[in-house]
UniProtKB/TrEMBL annotation:
It comes from Alteromonas gilva. InterPro entries: Hexapep, Hexapep_transf_CS, LbH_SAT, Ser_O-AcTrfase, Trimer_LpxA-like_sf. PROSITE patterns: HEXAPEP_TRANSFERASES (PS00101). Keywords: Acyltransferase, Repeat, Transferase. Gene3D superfamilies: Hexapeptide repeat proteins. The keyword NADP does not apply. It comes from the Bacteria. Signal peptide: none annotated. This is Serine O-acetyltransferase. Pfam families: Hexapep (PF00132), Hexapep_2 (PF14602). The keyword S-adenosyl-L-methionine does not apply. Belongs to the transferase hexapeptide repeat family. PANTHER family: SERINE ACETYLTRANSFERASE.
Length: 149
């Protein structure tokens, strides 16, 4: 197997691709076109991924990104995998902001990462985990609330 065989980008028809197109127009102050792509993302994939979200190269959502919700202030690193029904969200207005996800992070199906927290590089977030605190690099988190194991 060649090295390039392991680099799957989710294909063209997925929520991340639509978000990147939306971000392209957003950064060029073409907000109406950006909102159109946001609407298409919501309509086609039942996902909410705002144009303001920074997403690194090689990051993709499994199963086209169905039901993924990402906070407008989130940042996602390179080569991350985001499962279906994942929420990267805020917690409350007193502590605004979204999660910052490092590089090479796997976020399992149904996981919730809430608040302005940091997930370190090369970490794994288990399916249906609820993460409320920072996660160090090279860690695995499972449970409700999420605990490093």
């Amino acid at each position: 197997m060649k090295e390039s065989d392991n680099n799957f980008d989710g294909g063209f028809y997925n929520a991340i691709t639509f978000q990147k197109i939306s971000r392209y127009f957003y950064l060029r102050k073409m907000k109406i076109i950006a909102r159109l792509f946001n609407f298409l993302t919501h309509f086609l994939f039942s996902s909410t991924i705002p144009s303001s979200v920074e997403i690194g190269e090689g990051t993709y959502c499994s199963h086209r990104g169905i039901a993924v919700v990402i906070h407008k202030n989130s940042k996602i690193g390179k080569n991350c995998i985001i499962g279906t029904s994942v929420v990267l969200g805020g917690r409350h207005s007193e502590n605004p902001g979204g999660p910052v996800i490092g590089d090479n992070v796997y976020i399992g199906t149904g996981a919730k990462i809430l608040g302005p927290i940091k997930i370190g590089d090369n970490s794994n977030i288990g399916a249906n985990s609820v993460v409320l605190k920072d996660v160090p690099a090279n860690s695995t988190v499972v449970g409700i609330p999420g605990k490093v194991i």
